[in-house]
Specification:
This protein is α/β, with parallel strands linked by helices. It folds into two domains: 157 residues, 3-Layer(aba) Sandwich (Alpha/beta knot); 75 residues, Trp Operon Repressor, Chain A (Orthogonal Bundle), CATH 1.10.1270. The protein is 37% helix and 17% strand. It is built from nine helices and ten strands. The strands form three sheets. A five-stranded parallel beta sheet has the order 2-1-6-5-8, sandwiched between helices. A three-stranded mixed beta sheet has the order 3-4-7. Strands 9-10 form a two-stranded antiparallel ribbon. Helix 4 crosses helix 6. The radius of gyration is 23 Å and the shape is elongated. The chain binds 6-chloroguanine. The site of 6-chloroguanine has 14 residues, from strand 5 and strand 8.
């Protein structure tokens, strides 16, 4: 039996996750029961009268730090829920700029796990002892700083949901995304055939599927070489790919 992917999120702003739970491909994945999203607000686990979950940093400095205990209690509640849902070993992931940078391989690895508990920090940070005690890995979505882990968690969730079988209308679509094959996606066109004087490439109008496949592969190769040469350095080219890329580079040379 295929069980729903279990995703629990610890966040002070649970409503932010409406953005992915109510719209588009991700919203449909939850609706269809391919995944289950459960939000936990650490404020609900605060034991003080003001429901506060942060305090000033030891050693001084700006801002506030999220306290360990309300987060630990929220993580434990999430883990207990996942155990009840049949997940043996839910993985606790802290979204933070110092984490391992997310890429397609990381998305595929996360998508293969039965259950995730995503911890979103706010303020200046989270008490390090909570990270040492309860977090399995840290994930970042790029080299810039967000005001909290929520947007990053939503990026992770959206990217992995589209990898679940049945999440996309066209079963092939996820295989054809950029990066899946280590190349950027080819360009897409739809009607009208001429728009503001710009023609759709004629090869796409001819119905010769083998020519179209070669043209798209060539576009992917040329765009990857131009925009993301780093991707090609990490990938061997097949004979066909080498020929197509060489051809397109030659075509770019002035007469
Ligand atoms: Cl995961 N969190 C925050 N706060 N900022 C980030 C990030 C995560 N990834 C990139 N910047």
């Amino acid at each position: 039996m295929v069980v729903a992917k279990q995703i629990d999120v610890i966040s002070l702003f649970p409503d932010m996750f409406d953005a992915i739970s109510r719209h588009g491909v991700s919203g449909r994945a939850f609706e269809r029961g391919l995944a289950h999203l459960q939000l936990w607000n650490p404020r609900e686990f605060s034991t003080n009268p003001y429901r506060s979950v942060d305090d000033r940093p030891y050693g001084g400095g700006p801002g506030m730090v999220m306290q360990a205990e309300p987060l630990a209690a929220a993580i434990e509640a999430a883990q207990a829920r996942q155990h009840d849902a049949g997940v043996g070993d839910p993985r606790v992931i802290f979204l933070a700029p110092h984490g391992r940078r997310l890429d397609h391989d990381a998305v595929m690895r996360l998508a293969s796990l039965d259950g995730l508990v995503l911890l979103c920090g706010r303020y200046e940070g989270v008490d390090q002892r909570l990270i040492d005690e309860s977090v399995h890995e840290c994930v970042s979505i790029g080299d810039y700083v967000l005001s909290g882990g929520e947007l990053a968690a939503m990026v992770v969730i959206d990217a992995l949901l589209r990898q679940l079988p049945g999440a996309l209308g066209d079963a092939q679509s996820a295989d054809q995304d950029s990066f899946v094959d280590g190349l950027l996606d080819y360009p897409h066109y739809t009607r009208p055939e001429v728009w503001r004087g710009r023609q759709v490439p004629s090869v796409l109008l001819g119905g010769d599927h083998e020519r179209i496949r070669r043209w798209r592969l060539q576009q992917s190769l040329a765009d990857t070489a131009a925009l993301r040469p780093d991707l090609l350095r990490n990938r061997d080219l097949s004979k066909e790919e080498s020929v197509l890329l060489a051809q397109s580079l030659q075509a770019e040379q002035p007469e």
